[in-house]
Design brief:
With 101 residues, this protein is an all-alpha fold. Helix content is 71%, strand content 0%. It has one domain.
Length: 101
């Protein structure tokens, strides 16, 4: 593995963990690590949007990163859904849902 690729994967892992923790209130658990490695093949925007979509879809709360993988894959396949503007829209929806609006 080239040094640049390794650095990119390390940054991606930190980004993924931080975003997941920020929005779900959870840390990535030991049994989620295989799923996390699979998610690193997606763009950061698809990962972010997929996590947010998972939060909006669940009736309770996201307790495992594995729950988000389907939505991450869905966003990546849809293409335009994973844009920065769409991520901001999803963030706003999650914040409003948390406020009960």
């Amino acid at each position: 593995m080239r040094d640049g690729h390794l650095l990119c994967r390390i940054f991606g892992l930190r980004y993924l963990k931080a975003h997941y923790a920020k929005w779900t209130g959870n840390q990535v658990r030991e049994n989620d690590w295989q799923t996390v490695r699979l998610a690193l093949c997606y763009t950061p925007t698809a990962i972010k949007a997929g996590i947010l979509m998972s939060i909006l879809r669940t009736k309770t709360r996201v307790n495992s990163f594995k729950y988000c993988l389907g939505a991450i894959d869905e966003v990546a396949k849809a293409g335009i859904v994973g844009t920065a503007d769409h991520v901001r829209y999803l963030e706003m929806k999650v914040e409003k849902a948390r406020e009960g609006k």
